[in-house]
Design goal:
single chain, 326 residues, alpha+beta, Uridine Diphospho-n-acetylenolpyruvylglucosamine Reductase, domain 2, Enolase-like, domain 1, 5-stranded antiparallel β-sheet, 12 strands, 29% helix, globular, FAD-bd_PCMH_sub1
Length: 326
């Protein structure tokens, strides 16, 4: 480790003041502390925001769901409204990390977590995300777990969050509070693809604080679920995953929300799959045909070519689980 200062705040005004001075926000600390220990991140000041009043899960006026940024992952997963209204979120959270980490980690921290790319976490390796302009060792190195969608010549690291895949599928919004006041951004715009600036991962302005993630009201009945494929059944990040939500009325799919994880530099929305589903009747043939579009635009690397087919199969399986074949 290295010297740094630590301050604890009790209200958002104090948090924003500390953020304007360059402080890094910390709550559960399950990601940032690890990165500091490995000297991947070296903030001069940590600002403990764990006492801020951002711990509520509430139903919005329009019937959506607003989850405070400091709600623990375990709390959100177990919340009755989350479990019954959006089981895809509950399942994604429960398949994340260990029980101990889920009891500490927050929703805001989870979507802010940084990649598990081994080259990013090895300070001796070239990594544009950690050290802009140094190169990307994963491009020519061992890249089995890396991304096949949304990549660039500067970075091929995947985003590790399971919950973020569910939020992306459901087209959630991230609420922010900063020196210029409140604003919200779509989940698709909040997490940034690497392009030529992989070190910039979120659309946060200096000093801004995540206050909540809001899932919009979606048509009922809504069936949803999350499927995670990994090398082992516990405490492992996804090789690929699929978040699916379907609104089926009178035997016809009226609305479809689908996203994938473990394969993209950000949680990857699958609009081509969604378009193929809407207006159709559930069937095994439909699931297979729609899933064929899941890997559109994929750019596999030397060691992760298997992910293209694995992604299609994962999406097909989860469509079948959620939608059935009636």
């Amino acid at each position: 480790m290295y010297p740094f200062s630590f301050t604890k705040v009790s209200d958002t005004r104090g948090a924003l003041a500390a953020g304007r001075r360059g402080g890094r926000y910390i709550a559960g600390g399950t990601t940032l502390v690890d990165l500091m220990r490995e000297t991947v991140e070296r903030p001069e000041t940590l600002v403990d925001i764990s006492d801020l009043p951002l711990r509520d899960v509430t139903v919005t006026e329009r019937g959506g769901l607003r989850i405070g940024a400091l709600v623990r992952m375990a709390e959100a997963a177990a919340h009755p409204k989350v479990r019954t209204t959006y089981p895809v979120v509950s399942q994604a959270l429960e398949l994340s990390a260990s029980a101990q980490l889920r009891n500490m980690a927050t929703i805001g921290g989870n979507i802010m977590q940084r990649t598990r790319c081994t080259y990013f976490r090895d300070v001796t390796a070239a990594c544009n995300k950690r050290d802009p302009g140094s190169g990307c060792a994963a491009l020519k190195g061992f890249n089995r777990t890396h991304a096949i969608l949304g990549t660039s010549d500067a970075c091929v690291a995947t985003h590790p969050s399971d919950a973020a895949v569910a939020f992306a599928a459901l087209e959630a919004r991230v609420h922010l509070l900063g020196p210029d006041g409140e604003r919200s951004v779509t989940f698709a715009d909040f997490l940034l693809k690497p392009g030529s600036t992989p070190n910039r991962e979120q659309a946060l302005r200096k000093g801004e604080l995540i206050t909540a993630v809001e899932i919009p009201a979606l048509a009922r009945p809504l069936k949803s679920g999350y499927l995670k494929v990994r090398d082992r059944q516990s405490y492992e990040f996804a090789l690929t995953s699929a978040a699916v939500a379907l609104h089926i009325r009178a035997g016809v799919i009226r609305e479809a929300k689908v996203a994938a994880g473990g394969v993209g530099t950000v949680p990857w929305k699958l609009p081509a799959v969604e378009r193929h589903l809407i207006g159709e009747r559930p069937s095994q043939a439909l699931w297979t045909q729609a899933a064929e579009r899941a890997a559109d635009g994929a750019r596999p690397l030397e060691h992760n070519r298997f992910k293209t087919e694995l992604l299609k199969r994962t999406v097909e399986r989860q469509l079948r689980i959620v939608g059935g074949t009636a």
